[in-house]
Amino acid sequence: MLMVKKTLSEYFQILSSRDLVLQPFVATESIGKWDTWVSVKGGGTHAQAEATRMAVSKALSSYDNGLRAPLRKAGYFKRDLRIVERKKPGQKKARKKFQW
Q1: Element holding 38 (H helix, E strand)
Q2: Alpha helix (H) ranges present in the chain?
Q3: Has this prediction a pTM greater than 0.90?
Q4: 58-75: per-residue pLDDT in tens?
Q5: I need a labelling partner for 20 at 20 to 30 A (CA). Which of 28, 57, 60, 64 fits?
Q6: Spatial contact of 21 and 52, defined as CB atoms under 8 Å apart
Q7: DSSP notation for 53-72
């Protein structure tokens, strides 16, 4: 697996992030059967690993609908919906207020 022109172990140096990326292959019992090339940007390394896991899951399910059931059961199609809260006018940050 290539991640932005690097191997998986070079791009994700933390073992738990590598495991996240490989989870769809483990769930479908297809480790070593696919050559993949993934391009991710933005966020942190853990968020990129989760995004890659979802992308690989969607790619596997679009190739073979029989693989969709184990991937859905494992929850690999769910997105983390937390986003950065916007800064409000008249405040220092999103929730931090000016001191009087």
Answers
A1: strand 37-38
A2: 8-11, 15-27, 45-63, 68-74
A3: no
A4: 999 999 999 999 999 999
A5: 64
A6: yes
A7: HHHHHHHHHHH-GGGHHHHH
